[in-house]
TrEMBL record:
Localization annotation: Cell outer membrane
Organism per entry: Cyclobacterium amurskyense
Protein name (database record): Outer membrane efflux protein
Domain of life: Bacteria
Keyword Transmembrane helix: no
GO molecular function: efflux transmembrane transporter activity; porin activity
GO cellular component, one term: efflux pump complex
Similarity section: Belongs to the outer membrane factor (OMF) (TC 1.B.17) family.
UniProt keyword Mitochondrion present: no
Alphabetical UniProt keywords: Cell outer membrane, Membrane, Transmembrane, Transmembrane beta strand, Transport
Length: 419
């Protein structure tokens, strides 16, 4: 029996879920790695490879098998009669089957330019995915600090409840010795019930926020898990590193390659061809019999004048480049404004935090004095609770300011692109 008991006690830790300790960096990495849109980068790479393979196939010879049977209302005839010659006109029913081979020899590098354009399009689309994922990081950041604040509020409530439970024990002893009225303990018990109610509210609010964080990070996060308050170091002299900047750069590169491709449209092209066939008539139209035949040659094409079509295309692409440039300029300007606002918030919360510390110190001195007076029966439970509430309101404000300060620092790094 004793052995079974020892076995059960040994298994208990294995049955209780292990508590996790998570950091902001871990949550951001999980969101970046596991977000469904991240898989698009691989899919886009696969699409790019398929499109480039199709372009490369244009360099291979094209084989076409053709066959036709026709009947025509009239045929070519020689309008004169020649002595000692009987020239029969072609049959009105004619038959032909051919194998045609066409081989691209030169097209001004159009295939290579198209491949470069596909590569530029791939970079642009993959960077668009990066921009979207970075926006998800902003949601993770906000949700993380919401959970962190609720977590700290719960800790403060637990601390406050512990103090009130100690005062309640002292009140029961005082009532028993006739040094206090029963209402003294009743007030303390009512305050404890109010704290329990607040804990229930905070628990469910934290549960909702954790469910959102779990959905964003694709990781199960339980109420028993702990989120660490991050230590954030700011470097104000580092350059802007937002993924949007690369997106603007890739868009501009894509448009430059588009202009190169437009220029390639004016290049001459050379094509080799061959045809082998069997038909009636063959190449000799005056021989009314089935014949084998073949033909080989070169085709040259060069569009000398396009009425300014290519030039208009290039002007359109240049206009799009200017649009991208203005979008980048606007983004950088708005980003600088956001950075300045975030920096002002950091300065504000640092200053408020100093005042919060002073307020909490003063409130702690007051409650220390009130605790002694309560134990000696010189103040009522009501007066003690009022000052205790003021102390914990000050502590909650202090904790809120601490988290708002760290959240502003994290926001500054996100705006700058350092996460």
């Amino acid at each position: 029996m004793k052995g079974i008991l020892i076995f059960i006690l040994a298994m208990v830790p294995l049955l209780v879920p292990a508590q996790q300790v998570l950091t902001l960096e871990e949550c951001l990495t999980l969101a970046e790695t596991n977000y469904p849109l991240a898989r698009q980068k691989v899919l886009l790479e696969q699409q790019f490879q398929s499109e480039v393979n199709v372009l490369e196939l244009q360099k291979l010879p094209k084989l076409d098998l053709n066959a036709q049977s026709t009947y025509q209302s009239d045929v070519t005839r020689i309008p004169i009669e020649l002595p000692n010659a009987d020239i029969q006109p072609p049959n009105k029913d004619q038959y032909r089957a051919t194998l045609d081979v066409n081989q691209l020899i030169y097209n001004g590098g159009s295939i290579a330019a198209n491949a470069r354009l596909k590569q530029a399009e791939l970079k642009t689309r993959q960077q668009e995915v990066e921009v979207t994922i970075y926006q998800v990081k902003e949601r993770v950041n906000g949700t993380y600090f919401k959970v962190l604040l609720l977590q700290e509020q719960e800790k403060l409530l637990d601390s406050k409840m512990k103090i009130l439970q100690e005062r309640a024990k002292e009140a029961v002893s005082a009532i028993r010795n006739g040094m206090a009225l029963p209402s003294s303990n009743q007030l303390l018990q009512a305050e404890l019930l109010l704290l329990e109610q607040q804990k229930v509210h905070l628990k469910y609010e934290r549960k909702k926020a954790l469910e959102s964080l779990s959905s964003l990070t694709f990781k199960d996060i339980a109420l028993s898990d702990t989120l660490l308050k991050p230590e954030i170091l700011l470097a104000s002299n580092t350059p802007l590193n937002r993924p949007e900047l690369k997106l603007f750069e890739y868009k501009a590169q894509q448009l430059d390659i588009s202009k190169e491709l437009i220029d390639k449209e004016k290049s001459p092209s050379v094509m080799g061809f061959a045809q082998a066939g069997y038909g009636n008539p063959g190449l000799n139209m005056l021989d009314n019999s089935f014949q084998e035949f073949y033909m080989v040659g070169l085709k040259f094409n060069w569009r000398l004048f396009d009425w300014g079509k290519n030039q208009e295309k290039k002007l359109g692409v240049e206009a799009l480049k200017q649009v991208v440039a203005t979008e980048k300029e606007t983004f950088v300007l708005n980003n600088e404004i956001q950075l300045q606002e975030a920096w002002e918030d950091i300065s504000k919360y640092r200053e408020i935090l100093e005042q919060d510390a002073a307020i909490v110190n003063l409130r702690e001195e007051v409650i220390a004095s009130n605790t002694s007076q309560f134990q000696n029966g010189t103040i009522t439970s009501s007066a003690y609770i009022i000052d205790l509430n003021k102390l914990y309101d000050a502590k909650i404000n202090q904790k809120l300011t601490e988290i708002q300060l760290v959240m502003s620092q994290a926001k500054y790094k996100l705006i700058k692109g350092d996460f």
